[in-house]
Amino acid sequence: LPGLHVFAIALALEVSVGKTNTVMALNNSNVLLPCIFTTCIGFQDLVFTWYFNSTEMIYHGKIKSKASEPFLVSRNPRVEFVGSTTGKDNNISIVLKNVEFSDAGKYTCHVKNPKEKNAQHNATIFLTVVQKMVETDNTLTLIIVGVVGGLIGLLILFMLVKRVVLKECLVSSSGNDNTENGLAGSKAEQKAPPKA
Fold first, then answer.
1. What's the rounded Cα separation, in Å, for the pair 78 and 97?
2. What local confidence, expressed as pLDDT, does residue 82 receive?
């Protein structure tokens, strides 16, 4: 079962860049490139590296243990480490300063954990650099969502009211004593079982 053991180890180390893997930045601004890692069995002498377009190393760091912050091994002068690993999240995010159009591309956050038999994992984020941000108008989307949500709410309310009214009708009709009216099924007409 050595293959199963390797499979379990591979699932223990995870690296993530958040909910979306695309980031847009203004030319000449600073941009955060997020990255966090999780590990089930902890880490020791963990190595993390950020790559630009898979080949150019822009940040290389090492973390002794959970009790210590990462230390720099090497980096591009325009890259600043902004994460922290002694807190709850194992955050190894960086900030790229004074972004230029040539910085657009693929950024990979790569993590290697010797404590997990050198398990490796990475996550990728894509950076787009623009001259100016374009504001999107979400008014129509908000109107549609509001109308659909309102209709669903009305439908649920209608179903609840119908259920309560139907339940009250059943309870009140089954509880009537119709002996005065001489209606079929009244309590007076119930016959005893025949004797043999």
1. 5
2. 93
Residue with tokens 């079982």: 193
Residues 112 and 4: beta-carbon distance below 8 Å:
no
Task: Tell me the pTM.
Answer: 0.61
pLDDT classification of 142: cutoffs 50, 70, 90: confident
Domain count, the chain: 1
- Residue 103 in any domain: the answer is yes
- The per-residue pLDDT for range 148-159, each reduced to its tens digit, is 888 888 888 877
Given this model, what pLDDT does residue 8 score? 42
Show the domain range for 26: 13-130
CATH number reported for the structural domain that contains residue 90 in this entry: 2.60.40.10
- Whether residue 19 is predicted with pLDDT greater than 50 in this model: the reply is yes
CA distance 157 to 33: 45
Both tokens of 189, joined, read: 């007409």
Query: What is the C-alpha to C-alpha distance for residues 122 and 35, in angstroms, rounded to an integer?
Result: 9
